[in-house]
Amino acid sequence: MNAPVKPSKLIKGATGDWEMVIGLEIHAQVTSKAKLFSGSSTAFGGAPNTHVSLVDAAMPGMLPVINEECVRQAVRTGLGLNAQINLRSTFDRKNYFYPDLPQGYQISQYKSPIVGEGEVTIELDGGETATVGIERLHLEQDAGKLVHDRNPSSTSVDLNRSGVALMEIVSKPDMRSSEQAQAYVSKLRTILRYLGTCDGDMEKGNLRADCNVSVRRPGEPFGTRCEIKNVNSIRFIGQAIDYEARRQIGILEDGGSIEQETRLYDPNKGETRSMRSKEEAHDYRYFPDPDLLPLELSEALVEELKASLPELPDDKKARFVSAFGLSDYDAAVLVAERESAEFYEAVIDGLKDKARDGKLAANWVINELFGRLNKEGQDIAASPVSAAQMSHIIDLIGEGTISGKIAKDLFEIVWTEGGDPRVLVEERGMKQVTDMGAIEKVVDDIIAANPDKVAQAQAKPALMGWFVGQVMKSSGGKANPQAVNELLKTKLGL
Ligand code: ADP
Ligand code: MG
């Protein structure tokens, strides 16, 4: 269905070029108040074992009941990934023993997942885009957590997370560099956040990646892969993949071969190490869960969910480009977070002339506002300058009441003191001077005082810039630059 992403970067080995092949399995915690098969809370940070029902603790005879909201969330996600929604899917038991898994099996979807093939568009350097194929998305339960640092001589189990719904999103092996893998994860996270189906909080472990990496000579068949489990930041995903590819190239160039295995990334050492080999791989003895009927969805439900999806980042980006003439890059910056895009849209809503000033608004939101927020380590939600105040500042520039330079001072005042930008401009005398008489007076004075510079500028018109600077300076930045330029040209005879 999808052409793999073009190789953007080959790795130079001692014996020639190598290409990485990467496929990712993302575990994304479903945004839902209750767990996948019980009514227990999914709230983060509760005291240990306070969000545990008899189902989550796997008491004998307890029966799972599917949480309809988790199913809807999975369907929404599938739709957001342009994927096939399977109207019939089944749950299977994946059997293994671990102290954080009281059931002795995880309920997952093995043969028939709820979502089939789809795709994600990723942004590459230089405004290029590429498509990464999605193999499937299935629903499964999360496990509990072992706590080792509570008691020096024993390990405790916290089952709060046990049974929380996860979506496992499996990509095709379509990525060819760590940058592409990172772009894929951040795009996927953006889409999930827009959809409201996963908060994408990697620090809390609500989104984590298993990275499958292999290397090959360009044009050769795929090599044997290793899987790096549970990488929990976009930076570490890049580091783990690069390290792993180098490690495999080293082995192959020394005449060795790659053993398929599961590895862990150690961010402190910056390296991956073996966790278990293929021989030690679990045989999970999957079988259909006899407690759960196949999950049947109606076409009508899928249509209803499709109709209620929000505008997604790719569509929003295309709309910003066509409606306001933004560059692909600026539009991508604005849509990267739903909150940023919504802020920009609120600024646009408040503008007097959206068509004229939409692009100006993007520059101001990205450069002045986001720049300042970044510097202060603040979030858009806590911005001291509201969208309405931004709209007014941009109106004032667009209509020529203030220059861009004065607008920066105005922004600073609004940021620190607040207030209505229009009133501030009046009260503090910040209006641009377009009164030709007043500007002419300043121009005449400067020309009279600098006969040597006049001669120079007449010999070399580029030197007129010096006069523009002087006039702007003596007007406190308030002279209209276009009027100044025109006047100077006439007066200097250029
Ligand atoms: P399994 O059934 O063993 O879990 P899958 O075929 O489901 O294997 O693949 C798991 C992940 O590994 C997918 O994301 C897939 O894209 C990726 N993958 C498969 N083969 C390779 C390979 N040769 N190199 C890198 N990634 C791969
Ligand atoms: Mg797999």
Give structural attributes.
3 domains, binds adenosine-5'-diphosphate, Arc Repressor Mutant, subunit A, 494 residues, 9-stranded mixed β-sheet, binds magnesium ion, 3-stranded antiparallel β-sheet
Shape descriptor: elongated
Integer tally of domains:
3
* CA(first)-CA(last) distance: 63 Å
Number of helices: 15
Provide the structure class. Answer: alpha+beta
Name the hetero compounds present: adenosine-5'-diphosphate, magnesium ion
Estimate percent helicity. 25-40%
- Largest sheet: number of strands, sense, barrel closure: 9 strands, mixed
Rg, please? 30 Å
How much of the sequence is in beta strands? Answer: 15-25%
Query: Which stretches are low in confidence, meaning pLDDT under 50 for 5 or more residues running?
Result: none
Structural description of this entry:
The chain is elongated, with a radius of gyration of 30 Å. It is 39% helix and 20% strand. Helix 8 packs across helix 9 and helix 9 packs antiparallel against helix 10 (404-417). 35% of the residues are buried. The protein has 15 helices and 16 strands. The longest helix is centred in the last third of the chain and has 23 residues, at 354-376. The termini are far apart. The protein has helices at 68-80, 178-195, 234-253, 299-307, 313-324, 328-335, 338-350, 354-376, 387-398, 404-417, 421-427, 436-449, 451-459, 464-474, 481-492; strands spanning 11-13, 16-29, 88-89, 92-95, 105-108, 118-123, 129-141, 145-151, 154-158, 165-171, 207-216, 226-231, 261-266, 271-277, 287-288, 295-296. The protein is an alpha+beta fold. The protein binds adenosine-5'-diphosphate and magnesium ion. The site of adenosine-5'-diphosphate has 14 residues, from strand 2, strand 10 and strand 11. Adenosine-5'-diphosphate is lined by residues 21-25, 170-173, 212-214, 222, 225.
